[in-house]
């Protein structure tokens, strides 16, 4: 078994990324067999929400990779190593969500409309300054980190889910926490000649835009999947709203972390939640590989 890669932080003075941070690539495979149609505790709303999220990941994570790689020139050796690990983790995430999405389609869910909507949104980014793509990536990475923390910290989210699917989301969440500062630190590097206000203004504006588009599109995506399950109208809308804001209430629970993003001094590692990684790490020891 190969060891994880430790990354030296001596070259960075402005970001509170932990000095002993380790990014580990866990080359796991999931969902190559069969999975229940309503894998989230036999319940449609959690199943539809996560299916909708998963449908966005292949194109979305490819976008993240390119946005970060576009700004790696001149980065410190530490940040270069982080970016390489980030890319490898995201490539694996893409592969596993493609496999998961294939299972959803085999159960009769049509997710092609979601993929097409993501493609249309990404097409709108062509021609805009690359730093804007990085700012959008940074905001979306904050979303994945917030949800990853919530999924790992509160077992109720996947307590009654299909074990194989639960394991995939746990694996994905661990690595999202590990690399949650990479896009942000790349942004700090790319905007090192900017004033603090200019840097804060762009990332805050992009978070507002990303938030509007994220919830508007994921709400629409999830309702479409629920309609394919025979659940429509107010029953679908109330059920989804209850799932997101009441029980288990992932959106309600991540709101304080979302709000913290607007602090001028914010950094993703203001909250060191690596203890959650250690709590779950043993499940994936057989798949560790070097990030270099």
Automatic annotation (TrEMBL):
The protein's name in its UniProt record: Metal-dependent hydrolase
Source domain of life: Bacteria
InterPro entries: UCP07580
Gene Ontology MF terms: hydrolase activity
A Pfam family this chain is assigned to: Metal_hydrol
Keywords associated with the record: Hydrolase
Statement: the UniProt record of this protein carries the keyword Hydrolase: yes
